[in-house]
Amino acid sequence: MQIVFHIGANCTDGDRLVRSLVKNSDALALQGVSIPPHARYRKLLRETIQTLAGSAPAPDTRDILVDEIIGDTEAERLVMSNSTFICLPPRVFEGGQFYGLLEMKLRALKLLFPNDDIELFLALRNPATFIPAVFEQARTKNFGAFMEGIDPTSLRWSQVITRIRAIAPTAKVTVWCNEDTPLIWGDILQQMIGDAAPEPPIGEFDLLSTIMSPEGMSRFQAYLATRPPKTNLQMRRVIAAFLDKYALHDEVEEEVDLPGWDAHLVDHLTRIYEDDVKHIAGLDGVTFLEP
Asked: Would you say residue 14 has pLDDT above 90?
């Protein structure tokens, strides 16, 4: 079976991806693609991994898990999403390491699905906004304790991906920038669903509708009805043009308010991130989705 898992990152998704995916579940079930609601697997996988505590599972554990997740349906591809799979926000920098729990979680996933083809999906986010967002969700007031001595300028998503490749070298890894998701939402859905994905997938503009005014969405849909783009590139240009005019600024503009941070540091982190993304796009064994 193909096990497709969107594993993060924190503060990039807000469960919008899983909600859009599930909208396609009924149509895809007949084609061997199972997209169950997250209530069927998130707690189950978390508790199973905690119970294993690094040890090998019983021989029938995998089949029991699959039966619990997909029920009596026949499936060749199982699609799941949990942007906090690696860890919850308070533990992102635990032990002075960025996603220090990554290896343990992926090793457990491999143990649970030893003979399945695993595909991992990961959204990246500019540390200049990622760190403040995760800190806010961690619900702690001590920023220094939260960072555990980590220098924000040292964060590299490329190192996280290299670690993923090291622990799961046979897994397919697909990544994209959170900042680009409004432009490539349909592509992300299609990549996760696989070859059976409808064209376009249901929920293609779910994310767009949350950051564009109702008037803008209405005009956008009317434009598509009369002048449908012929290529993905044309579609992205249309989306970008409408966002430029109708974006909800409170949804797309982010204020950074952390102790000791200023505009210079934010700009510096952004430049580091942009260089890191260019490096990631060229990594072997990684599919990078871009506008």
From this structure: no
